[in-house]
């Protein structure tokens, strides 16, 4: 291993084996690059599970300007319009690039794109592959391309434990595998580690996605943004499996409706009905369940008998549960699905730490605002990977200055199990001050330690503090004690030091109040 690692010194290091990381590595070719994946490629990537597809203005009746308008509307006032415009205009070319890499997108008999409709889109613009297996097909093609690429050194079973930073500049990565810890010297690191769903009890994300990239960036001193905005998908399969299987929004785009256990279509009087923005639908389902009802997705009429053909992945897990979607309503509930917040980056994916970039769900580009428009996430990862790679290539390639010698100490592998019940109770679909403060008190001790739960607790604490500070309801952040949106939307920014100071203040204030009572 020592010989291998010394040969990798001073090359860019990409951390994460999902669509964002794989595409960034491919775009960097032929420059040698090191790609770290904690698990075998595809095993723990949310990209693999993506059913919906990629949003891109590919239809004759569509235009990037319409896609932009839908994105801005869904983002509830927090999208960066210039960033969003640039990304949606690049989306059609990104789809074509994926097709050239071998992704077998669904086509009409005449060879044109078969485009689906999802919530809050004004046009059919969702590009699918194998029905509801888009993520799996994209990952298949990208993994094959990465394994063929001679300039990519793939290290599977390797986890990044911390970033080595001096004078606000990246100097290396402290990583670990089954043989122990080791250091890769580098001045360029790309974080592409995915989301935070694994921090919650009920999520559609792989359990191994619990904010590792956010912890790495925060401990390195990077600024994070909009962490309070967590998207709950309204139609996760309501069964015992964890992570929770997802019923793609495309099923509702095909005409399926939401009903409760009395048969009432409770979204019927809402603007957009079942295809309203996800935050609205998720809150409606959550409230219906809080009233003591079960909620179902009813696809018996639409798509009806075509269900298994159109949605083979969903049909398969429904069948395992003894449900035939063509004849039976499917039980659903909201579950954590996507994180709109992340590492604050510029238009090229650069963070506030020199030599540190972020791409995909771990980043906050400004595209999604407070509420991601359906199927904009895979598209963002693919589009932004090209820009991140270009920026990494253009950065200084000279060997970094000699850093202070580090003797790697075995760092504990992270375990989010202690964090999940705390975040699930305090940072759910509906939030309030008392619940958020309980979460902060529960997370603070572990976040300040160096145990296996420390990094997950740190990320959870930063999310909770950001939610505590935002005294309004907007998109994926809904406060029952502040149910209205403020007149103007302002992005939030937070550092590790800020989060710790604010949390300490909340805890000390409570202690003083308790002492004087």
UniProtKB/TrEMBL annotation:
Entry's localization field: Cytoplasm
GO terms, molecular function: L-aspartate oxidase activity
Organism: Bradyrhizobium icense
Name by which UniProt lists this protein: L-aspartate oxidase
Function: Catalyzes the oxidation of L-aspartate to iminoaspartate.
Keyword Flavoprotein belongs to the record: yes
Cofactor(s) named in the record: FAD
Entry's EC annotation: 1.4.3.16
Annotated FAD-dependent oxidoreductase 2 FAD-binding domain residues: 13-378
Pfam families named in the record: FAD_binding_2, Succ_DH_flav_C
Main location: cytoplasm
GO annotation (BP), single: 'de novo' NAD+ biosynthetic process from L-aspartate
Segments forming domain Fumarate reductase/succinate dehydrogenase flavoprotein-like C-terminal: 459-484
GO CC annotation: cytoplasm
Recorded metabolic or biological pathway in which this protein acts: Cofactor biosynthesis; NAD(+) biosynthesis; iminoaspartate from L-aspartate (oxidase route): step 1/1
Transmembrane regions: none
Matches recorded under InterPro entries: FAD-dep_OxRdtase_2_FAD-bd, FAD/NAD-bd_sf, Fum_R/Succ_DH_flav-like_C_sf, Fum_Rdtase/Succ_DH_flav-like_C, NadB, Succ_DH/fumarate_Rdtase_cat_sf
């Amino acid at each position: 291993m020592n010989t291998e690692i010394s040969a990798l010194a001073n090359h860019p290091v990409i951390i994460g084996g999902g669509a964002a990381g794989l595409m960034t590595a491919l775009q960097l070719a032929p420059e040698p690059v090191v790609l770290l994946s904690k698990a075998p490629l595809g095993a723990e990537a949310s990209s693999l599970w993506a059913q919906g597809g990629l949003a891109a203005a590919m239809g004759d009746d569509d235009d990037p300007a319409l896609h932009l308008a839908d994105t801005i509307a869904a983002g509830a006032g927090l999208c960066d319009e210039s960033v969003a415009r640039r990304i949606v205009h690049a989306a059609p070319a990104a789809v074509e690039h994926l097709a050239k890499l071998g992704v077998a997108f669904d086509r009409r008999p005449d060879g044109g794109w078969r485009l689906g409709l999802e919530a809050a889109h004004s046009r059919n613009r969702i590009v699918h592959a194998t029905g509801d297996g888009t993520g799996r097909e994209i990952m298949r093609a990208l993994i094959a391309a990465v394994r063929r690429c001679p300039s990519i050194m793939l290290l599977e079973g390797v986890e990044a434990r911390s970033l080595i930073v001096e004078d606000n500049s990246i100097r290396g990565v402290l990583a670990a595998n089954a043989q122990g810890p080791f250091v890769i010297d580098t001045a360029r690191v790309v974080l592409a580690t995915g989301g935070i769903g694994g921090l919650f009890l009920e999520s559609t994300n792989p359990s191994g996605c619990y904010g590792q990239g956010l912890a790495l960036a925060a401990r390195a001193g990077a600024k994070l943004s909009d962490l309070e905005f967590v998207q709950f998908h309204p139609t996760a399969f309501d069964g015992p499996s964890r992570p929770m299987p997802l019923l793609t929004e495309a099923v509702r785009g095909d005409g399926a409706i939401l009903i409760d256990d009395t048969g009432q279509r409770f979204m019927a009087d809402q603007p957009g009905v079942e295809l309203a923005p996800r935050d609205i639908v998720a809150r409606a389902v959550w409230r219906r369940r809080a009233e003591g009802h079960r909620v179902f997705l009813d696809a018996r009429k639409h798509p009806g008998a075509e269900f298994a053909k159109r949605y083979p992945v969903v049909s398969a897990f429904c069948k395992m549960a003894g449900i035939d979607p063509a004849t039976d309503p499917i039980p659903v509930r909201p579950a954590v699905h996507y994180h709109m917040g992340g590492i604050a980056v510029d238009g090229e994916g650069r963070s506030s730490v020199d030599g540190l970039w972020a791409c995909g769900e771990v980043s906050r580009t400004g595209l999604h605002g407070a509420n991601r428009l359906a199927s904009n996430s895979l598209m963002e990862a693919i589009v932004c990977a090209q820009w991140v790679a270009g920026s990494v290539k253009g950065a200084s390639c000279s060997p970094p200055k000699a850093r202070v010698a580090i003797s790697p100490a075995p760092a504990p592998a992270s375990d989010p199990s202690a964090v999940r019940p705390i975040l699930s109770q305090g940072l759910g679909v509906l939030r309030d001050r008392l619940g958020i403060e309980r979460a902060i008190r529960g997370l603070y001790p572990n976040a300040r330690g160096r145990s296996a739960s420390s990094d997950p607790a740190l990320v959870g604490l930063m999310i909770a503090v950001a939610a505590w500070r935002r005294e309004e309801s907007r998109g994926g952040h809904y406060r029952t004690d502040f149910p209205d949106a403020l007149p103007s939307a302002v992005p939030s920014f937070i550092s590790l030091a800020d989060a710790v100071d604010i949390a300490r203040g909340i805890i000390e204030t409570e202690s003083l109040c308790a002492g004087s009572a």
